[in-house]
Amino acid sequence: MFIARSKSLIAACTRLNGNIALVHPVTVSTTLSPRFGITPLSFTIQRRLLSTNNSPLCANIKLDYFNIRGLAEPIRMVLHYGGVKFEDVRSPLPGWPPKMSESDKDKYRWGQVPCAVIDGKELYQSATITRYFAGQCGLIPADPYLAALCDEYVDVQRDIMIAWAPAAFAPTAAKKRLLCDDIYRLTKPRFLDVFEKIIKGSSSGKHLVGDKMTWADIHMAYAFDHVEKLIEFDVIKDHPSMKKVCETVWNVPSLKKWKETRPETPA
Ligand SMILES: N[C@@H](CCC(=O)N[C@@H](CS)C(=O)NCC(=O)O)C(=O)O
Fold first, then answer.
1. What share of the chain is helix, strand, coil (3-state, %, to 5)?
2. Is the dihedral of CA 263, 227, 233, 241 positive or negative?
3. PROSITE patterns given for it (predicted)?
4. Which is higher by pLDDT, 231 or 7?
5. Ligand 1: lining residues by beta carbon, under 6 Å
């Protein structure tokens, strides 16, 4: 017996039903109904069922970057969210900021990483790669305007990260403190308060766009976790709704596990 509530999930299961039902008939549901002995489909299985034939879920994926979180971390998070297997290739960091030798640069189309290799095909630019996998993992809304809002919010988060960079690379602790105060004064009204208002006014109170998790949420959790790591200062301590979005992301079991087990790196 098969019970599924979502139309697209039913369609996907119908496509795959032969394989699944013949091997192991199961009673499943997209929602929890323990009273009726119905087993919920795990999010990972739901995503696998909903993936299309050319989804990266079936592809051979390699992510090439340095042994830091940096620009690759939102990509890794999206892939972990999607339960996507990938090879997390981490080259030793060649100093700070990372500068590759000319011969290493020649290995990459634009002389930079991250580089994702999907079934042998290369893809560059961290935001492009993150968005590509987000689309395959159900993290981009179908509505084009809502999808574009996700892009907008991710771009703003990147602007915030750029604004904090001077504090991250300050030469002394005293200089860092001064810069933190200045940057906070500038970024709070311009960016943080605006995000706070957007989330407070949302239907869920825990997502940036619509009432489901999107890659804008995952990118927000990445961005503020990363800034906090670099400057040892919780930038969103006075923004409870932003905190809620980040906590919601980090409470997804696969991301919680990733946060607990990922390599400890300097940046
Ligand atoms: N806009 C690019 C920037 C990529 C980038 O700056 N990568 C740095 C590492 S974080 C790099 O490869 N540096 C080595 C070099 O330029 O020699 C992106 O978002 O992917």
1. 55, 10, 35
2. negative
3. GST_CTER, GST_NTER
4. 231
5. 70-71, 98-100, 105, 112-114, 125-127
In Å, what is the CA distance from 229 to each residue of 105, 127, 158, 222, 260?
28, 20, 16, 10, 15
139 token code pair: 């993290």
- Looking at residue 267, its pLDDT comes to 93
Alpha-carbon span 56 to 207, nearest angstrom: 25
Please indicate whether residue 50 or residue 117 has the higher confidence score (pLDDT).
117
Closest ligand 1 atom, residue 112 Cα? 12
**Ligand 1 center to residue 242 CA distance, Å?**
28
Q: Looking at the domain that runs over 144-261, which CATH code has it been given? A: 1.20.1050.10
Cα distance between residue 56 and residue 145, in whole Å: 24
Mean pLDDT calculated for residue range 106-112: 98
d(CA 16, CA 45): 12
Q: Which residue has the tokens 């079991």?
A: 253
Q: Model confidence over 227-247: pLDDT tens digits?
A: 999 999 899 999 999 999 999
Q: How confident is the model at residue 25 (pLDDT cuts 50, 70, 90)?
A: very low
Structure tokens belonging to residue 124: 């560059």
In the reported structure, the alpha carbon of residue 151 is separated from the centroid of ligand 1 by a whole-number distance in angstroms of: 20
pTM for the whole structure: 0.83
User: Does residue 191 register a pLDDT over 70?
Assistant: yes
The sign of the CA dihedral 138, 143, 146, 147 is positive
Question: Candidates 3.40.30.10, 3.30.479.30, 2.40.37.10, 2.40.50.150; correct CATH number of 56-136?
Answer: 3.40.30.10
CB 211 within 8 A of CB 205: no
- Residue 140, classed as helix, strand or coil, is coil
Decide: helix, strand or coil at residue 52. coil
